[in-house]
Fold:
Amino acid sequence: MLTRRSFFQQTGIIAAGLTLSRLQAIAGPFAPGELDANNIPIDKKLDPKWVKSLYERGTTTKYLKSRNELRYIGMPVGGINAGGVYLGGDGRLWLWDIFNDNQEGVEPKVVPMDEGEKRKQVRSRDGACYVEPAKDVRPLKQGFLIKVEWEGKTVIKSLEENDWDEIEFEAGYPIGTVRYTDKSLPVNITLHAYSPFIPLDENSSGIPATILTIRVKNKELTAVKVTITGYLENKTGIRSARNTLNRRANEAKAELNMVAVLESLEIMNEKSRDMEQNADFGTMCIAALGSNNKSYPDFNPETMTGGEATDVKATKPIQESLVGAVETTLSVKAEGSARADFIISWHFPNLKIDPNRIKDNGRYYQNEHTSALEVAQYIRDNFEQLSSKTRLWSRTWRDSTLPYWFLERTLMTADTLATTNCHRFSSGRFWAWEGVGCCGGTCTHVWQYAHSVGRLFPALERDTRERVDLGIAMEENGGIIFRAEEESRPAIDGQAGTVLRIYREHQMTGNNDFLKRNWEKIKKAVEFILNQDKNGDGMEDTPMENTLDAVWDGEIAWIVGLCIAGVRAGQAMAEEMSDTVFAKRCADYVKKGSANMDKYLFNGEYYIHRPDKEKGRAKLGSYNTCHIDQVFGQSWAHQVGLGYIQDPKKVKLALQSLWKYNYTPDVGPYIAVHKGGRPYALAGEGGMVMNTNPKNEDKPYGDNVTWQLGYFHECMSGFEYQVAAHMLAEGMIDEGLVLVRSIHDRYHASKRNPYNEIECSDHYARAMASYGAFITACGFEYHGPKGYMRFAPKWNADKFKTPFTAAEGWGTYSQEYIPSGMECVLQPNYGQVQLVSFSIDAPVGKRFKSAEVLLGGQKMPVKMKQEGQKVLLTFENRITVKEGQQLSIKL
Structure:
C-alpha cells in the first residue's frame, strides 16, 4: 500500500527536499506564533525577489531527463472532442483513451493515503492521480526507431528515455516539443507532436489524429543517412474482441505522397455482425507522408523485423500482437537538416454515454471520415493549412510580453477539450463531464467557471447555450436543469452563470442574430433568477442546489452576487433588444440587490452568508467565514465588461481578506488540523483554501456538519483561478500572480502531470477558469456585435504585447509609450476583426490631444474621447481589419 510518505519517498519528492526547499526559497520561515487560529500565516513572508521574478518574461519551461522530470508528463495531443492520447515526456504516446470506455479518471484506481493516524481511500474523483500520478498507461505498443548511418557506422536508437543521454521536453500547448541528444550520434533529433488546433475552427481542431514531425539536424561535416521507423500496435476491439469471433488485420496502403497501415478488426462469423456496434469497434492507422517510404503490416519493434515491404496484408489471432509500421529514409547533408512527417489516426465512432437518457450518440468526426485511413488522407491533403495554422497560433500565443510561465498555465488547461472529459456527438452537440468520466451533463455550475472554450471555440459554447441550456434543459418557468437530461432541477449558481455565458457568447459573435433568435428564452432564464428573490430585497434567498453539492438556506454572498451579475447581463441584453420595460426591471433589481448586499452581507472585512431568520444555522453553510467565491459575481462582470455591480472598495477589501485569511504558501499546517478535504494540494505546496474561519467561531459552518464540509478545506484550482483573475482586475497584481504561480508549481512535472489539473476526477473543467486570468491580465473587453474592443494591461503597459481572440479572427495587439504619446497596433493573423470603437488606457496623468489611425496604411476618420485614463476611439464607419493587415494608432 502506498501512503503519502512512501509516495514521496519512492518518487524522490521528500517533504524536506524539493517542497521544503521551495518554501525556503519563496516564503517564511514561520514561527508557530505567526500562524493564525486556522494555521495560515497572516504575513505571507514572500521573498520579494521571487515575487519580482513572476513578472519577468523568462523562457519556456523545459523538463529534463537528467532531473527526473519526464515520467508523469502526459500532454493531450489528439483532436478536441476526439478521445484522449497523451504525449509522454520522452516522446512516446500513451494513455490511448480512444476506445469509448467512459471510465472514471485517466487511470481508474484507488490510492490509500494517510491522514494523521487514519488511512483513507482516494478514488479518481477524489484526486488519486494527484497523490499518485498516472504513468506508463500503455495498452498498446507505439514508438519510433531511429537508425543513423555515417562513415561506416550504424547506430539504432528508440525515441524513449533509456536510449538517450539527455531528453528535453518543452512545455507548451498545443504543440509538444521533445529534443533528444546523445554524444554517440552525429545528429540531434527533435520531435514535434500535435493535433491541428486552430481557434475559431472547431472542425479542423477536432480531427482524431496526432501529427508527429521528426527533425534531424546533422552536426557533422559529412552526410548522414537516417532511417525512421514508426510503429503502432493494432488494438481495435481492445475490450470486446473474442478469439473465436475475431482476428486483427493490418493492410498496407501505398498512395500519392503517403504510405500507411490501416488496422482493423475482422469479424469471422457473419452472425456476429452486431459487434460492429461495440464501443471499441473501429480502425487505427499509422502513416508516413512524402516519398521514399515503406510500410510493413506485420512488424516486430524488438527485433526490427517483419514482413517484406511489398506485403499488403497481415492477420493474427486476438491473443497475438500485430504491429504495423511505416518507414522513411532521409539523406541529411553535412551540417544540414531534414524532416519526416507521420500521422497516427483513429476512428471509433460508436460513442454512447447514457442511452437511456441521452438520445445523441456517435462522434462528430464520423460525419467527415469513415475510417482512420480517411482521417490520415484528409490530413495529407490539407497538411500545409492544418499545420501552418496550428503553428501560427502557437507562435501568436507566445509572441507576447507576458511571462512564459503565465502564458503556459493559462492556456494549458484548454487541453481538457482533447481528453475524454469532452465529447461532440454526431449531431454536433457538445457534451462533457465535470472531470474525466465523472459527473456528466455539462454541469452548469461547474462549466460556468471555464472561460477557455468560449474564447477559443465560441461556436461550441454558443451551440450549447442554444441547443442545451435554452433547449433540452429549459423548464417552462425558465429554470435551466443543471445537467440537462442527467438531472431534474436547476442550480441557482449555474443558472446565473449560464445567463452570463449567454452574454459572453453573444459578445463573441459578429452580429445580433444569436441574441435575437434566443431572446425570449434568455428573458425567461433571467426572470427565473428574479423570481428566486422571495422577499424582494434584490438578494436571492430561495434554497437551491449549488456547486458545493448542497442546498443552503439564507442569503449567501457569492450566490447573491452571482445572481446580481446574471441579471445585470440580462439588463444589457434587454437594452440591446430595445426591451426597455424588462431592462428597467433588471436595473431595479441590480441597484437594490447591490445596495443590500453591501449593507447586509459585508461584515467590514468580507462578504458573508446571512442565515435564514427562522432556520438559523441549522444546515451547513459558510456563514461568517471567509469564502473563496464571495465576490464571484463581480469577477464575472469584469470578464464581460459589465463594470462594477458592487462597491469597489468593499470588493477589494474582500479580496484582501481572501489573501490574508485563505492563502498560504504551505497548506501543510492547515490540512494537518482540518481533516476531510481531498488532496488537491499537499504539504509544502501553496494555495488558497476554500473557506476559513477568521473569527475562530465554534461551529462556524452550522450545526449540522455534513460530508460537504470537506470541500471547505480544499484547494481547488478552478476557484483559485477565479480569484486570481479578479485580483488582477482589481490591481492586486502581486497576489494574483502568486496565486496562479502556486497552481503552476503544484503541477510541476517533478511531482505530477503539468497538463492534468485535478478536482473531481482528471482534467477538471473548472480549471479552464485559468483563461480568465489571461483576459484580465490584458484588460481585454470585447463586444463583437457592437464592434467594441479594449485593452488595458495590468502591468508592463509601457511596452506590452499579447495575443487575442475575437468573433471572426485572432492575432496580436501591442502598445508602447513614446515621448510624444503612445502607439498601438492591432494585427489579425487569422480571419478578421470588425470594429466600430477601440479603447485603451493612457499613461497615468497623460492627456492626449489627437489621434491618428491607419488601416493598411490608409488614414481612417476617428473621434477621440478621454475620461481619466480611459481613451475611446470611435470610427466614422465600421471598419474591417483583415488577416495580415495592421490597424495602427498613434496618440
Q: What stands out?
A: The first strand starts at residue 62 and ends at 64. The CA atoms of residues 85 and 96 lie 5 Å apart.
